[in-house]
Amino acid sequence: MASMATSTLTSSLVSSNPKTSSFNGSAFSSRIKSIPQQHTSSTISMSLTTPPYDLNSFKFQPIKESIVSREMTRRYMTDMITYADTDVVVVGAGSAGLSCAYELSKNPNISVAIIEQSVSPGGGAWLGGQLFSAMVVRKPAHLFLDELEIEYDEQEDYVVIKHAALFTSTIMSKLLARPNVKLFNAVAVEDLIVKGGRVGGVVTNWALVSMNHDTQSCMDPNVMEAKVVVSSCGHDGPFGATGVKRLRSIGMIESVPGMKALDMNAAEDAIVNLTREVVPGMIVTGMEVAEIDGSPRMGPTFGAMMISGQKAAHLALKALGKNNAIDGTCELGIETPNLVLASAETKEIVDA
Ligand code: 48N
């Protein structure tokens, strides 16, 4: 009964009729954007279908333990052999990295490896600000959410996803289902492959090994070659901004000034406009852009991560000589995002 009472309370707060509901006194938005009825979680959870088996006499088919081991080992080793030389490596599976990999995965001829040091990919996108649930996305980035069929509460200039995990779990479920994508989580990129002044791949190790190099004798890494590397290492956490910091320590860039103080409006435009190939073979996206350019931080708004990730994908497609939305060479609406991606780099935003 409690859950019913809660859902009644919740629905009165977010009722689609502004005249009958208000929140902190201001009338609520005119409508809640929802996806076709057959997809909504409330339909699924409210349906009274019973499981297709008898829960009172449930029995699994038999299995040999070694078969489980062989199934996991064969697949993982096959994936490592397959992705040892790949088109694009995306370092970091936060909102920017996931958006980039999702956009790239639309082209079935592109192979994408996502390297994420955490066991649980998603970076900072499992929650909004200060560990609150809701995720704010400023328009027109909500059009990306429409493409992902993610429900949100719509306001005039922004939308609110009721729980950030709805974005992260939805984009990940769609992305990981695609045949040309492989996520290597619990794996860290601890260095770059650089040949002739061009980034040509990444140096990897189990993340727990990367974090414990000082506790053992030498534990050498593995490698993964790539035509293009997209660095989306964020700015926070034990591995924050490790992509651009490595570029600095090997002298490929001069400085990593770090993000400036918070200014939502300046920050989100700057992140998207400054998303670019910072050295030959390496594109930077998401909050790492703020780290390398010293642009302001935006705090708990996530649209820039999504669009920066999409832009990084099209910059990677351009670098691969494929149709892309930067050159305007891909069919509108099929391969491109339903937004016109700003292609001009506008350094003056940062200097303003
Ligand atoms: O979510 P993050 O940290 O980074 P982004 O850029 O995708 O999104 C940033 C966003 O969540 C914000 O910070 C918001 C908008 N706040 C801004 C503000 O003003 O505070 O994801 C980065 C991911 C994480 O999952 C890391 O674990 C991972 O990258 N990672 C790595 N994985 C493998 N190897 C590495 N060397 C590595 N470095 C980071």
TrEMBL record:
<dbReference type="GO" id="GO:0009570">
    <property type="term" value="C:chloroplast stroma"/>
</dbReference>
<dbReference type="GO" id="GO:0160205">
    <property type="term" value="F:cysteine-dependent adenosine diphosphate thiazole synthase activity"/>
</dbReference>
<feature type="binding site">
    <location>
        <begin position="116"/>
        <end position="117"/>
    </location>
    <ligand>
        <name>substrate</name>
    </ligand>
</feature>
<keyword id="KW-0150">Chloroplast</keyword>
<feature type="modified residue" description="2,3-didehydroalanine (Cys)">
    <location>
        <position position="218"/>
    </location>
</feature>
<keyword id="KW-0479">Metal-binding</keyword>
<keyword id="KW-0784">Thiamine biosynthesis</keyword>
<feature type="compositionally biased region" description="Low complexity">
    <location>
        <begin position="1"/>
        <end position="16"/>
    </location>
</feature>
<dbReference type="Pfam" id="PF01946">
    <property type="entry name" value="Thi4"/>
</dbReference>
<dbReference type="InterPro" id="IPR036188">
    <property type="entry name" value="FAD/NAD-bd_sf"/>
</dbReference>
<dbReference type="GO" id="GO:0009228">
    <property type="term" value="P:thiamine biosynthetic process"/>
</dbReference>
<feature type="binding site">
    <location>
        <position position="220"/>
    </location>
    <ligand>
        <name>substrate</name>
    </ligand>
</feature>
<comment type="similarity">
    <text>Belongs to the THI4 family.</text>
</comment>
<feature type="binding site">
    <location>
        <position position="96"/>
    </location>
    <ligand>
        <name>substrate</name>
    </ligand>
</feature>
<feature type="binding site">
    <location>
        <position position="287"/>
    </location>
    <ligand>
        <name>substrate</name>
    </ligand>
</feature>
<keyword id="KW-0520">NAD</keyword>
<comment type="subunit">
    <text>Homooctamer.</text>
</comment>
<keyword id="KW-0408">Iron</keyword>
<dbReference type="InterPro" id="IPR002922">
    <property type="entry name" value="Thi4_fam"/>
</dbReference>
<feature type="binding site">
    <location>
        <position position="124"/>
    </location>
    <ligand>
        <name>substrate</name>
    </ligand>
</feature>
<dbReference type="GO" id="GO:0005506">
    <property type="term" value="F:iron ion binding"/>
</dbReference>
<dbReference type="GO" id="GO:0005829">
    <property type="term" value="C:cytosol"/>
</dbReference>
<feature type="binding site">
    <location>
        <position position="189"/>
    </location>
    <ligand>
        <name>substrate</name>
    </ligand>
</feature>
<feature type="binding site">
    <location>
        <position position="235"/>
    </location>
    <ligand>
        <name>substrate</name>
    </ligand>
</feature>
<comment type="function">
    <text>Involved in biosynthesis of the thiamine precursor thiazole. Catalyzes the conversion of NAD and glycine to adenosine diphosphate 5-(2-hydroxyethyl)-4-methylthiazole-2-carboxylic acid (ADT), an adenylated thiazole intermediate. The reaction includes an iron-dependent sulfide transfer from a conserved cysteine residue of the protein to a thiazole intermediate. The enzyme can only undergo a single turnover, which suggests it is a suicide enzyme. May have additional roles in adaptation to various stress conditions and in DNA damage tolerance.</text>
</comment>
<dbReference type="InterPro" id="IPR027495">
    <property type="entry name" value="Sti35"/>
</dbReference>
<dbReference type="GO" id="GO:0052837">
    <property type="term" value="P:thiazole biosynthetic process"/>
</dbReference>
<feature type="compositionally biased region" description="Polar residues">
    <location>
        <begin position="17"/>
        <end position="27"/>
    </location>
</feature>
<feature type="region of interest" description="Disordered">
    <location>
        <begin position="1"/>
        <end position="27"/>
    </location>
</feature>
<keyword id="KW-0934">Plastid</keyword>
<keyword id="KW-0808">Transferase</keyword>
<feature type="binding site">
    <location>
        <begin position="297"/>
        <end position="299"/>
    </location>
    <ligand>
        <name>substrate</name>
    </ligand>
</feature>
<protein>
    <recommendedName>
        <fullName>Thiamine thiazole synthase, chloroplastic</fullName>
        <ecNumber>2.4.2.60</ecNumber>
    </recommendedName>
</protein>
